[in-house]
Amino acid sequence: MAGYGARLRPDKLGLTFHAIVHIQLTRHDPAHLKRFIEAVASREEVQECFATTGTADYHMRVRCTDITAYNRFMDDFLFLLPAVSSAQTNVILRDIKS
Fold first, then answer.
1. Taking the domains of the chain in order of start, what are their residue ranges?
2. Quick count: other Cβ atoms within 10 Å of Cβ 88?
3. Most-buried pick from 26, 33, 42, 75 (CB within 10 A)?
4. What is the DSSP letter of 82?
5. Residues 50-58: contacts with CB within 8 Å, 24+ apart?
6. CA distance linking residue 48 with residue 27, whole number of Å
7. What CATH class has 10-91?
8. Residue 27 has pLDDT above 80, yes or no
9. What residues contact residue 33 under an 8 Å CB cut-off, 6+ apart?
10. Rounded mean pLDDT of 11-19?
11. For 47-91, what is each residue's pLDDT tens digit?
């Protein structure tokens, strides 16, 4: 066991938009990767982020108040990171198991 904590209900916090974002990078040089990782870690919308194998380089679980907030997150943050080539969004329709 690593510790304990409270489980909050995102919907009760107003975070009703939930998505998995698959990110492909243009550059894998250390400086761009470091900037990407630090930037993603600093954003509260990003609940989880994983470096993965396969087509996408990273997968993120993102929660926002609504689709408008998500679009702002993408346009004003994610797409401005130099390492990001593309992002594909899968919207979560409902949680089956968390």
1. 10-91
2. 13
3. 33
4. T
5. 55/22, 55/24, 56/22, 56/23, 56/24, 56/88, 57/23, 57/24, 57/25, 57/28, 58/22, 58/23, 58/25
6. 21
7. alpha beta
8. no
9. 25, 27, 83
10. 87
11. 999 999 999 999 999 999 999 999 999 999 999 999 999 999 999
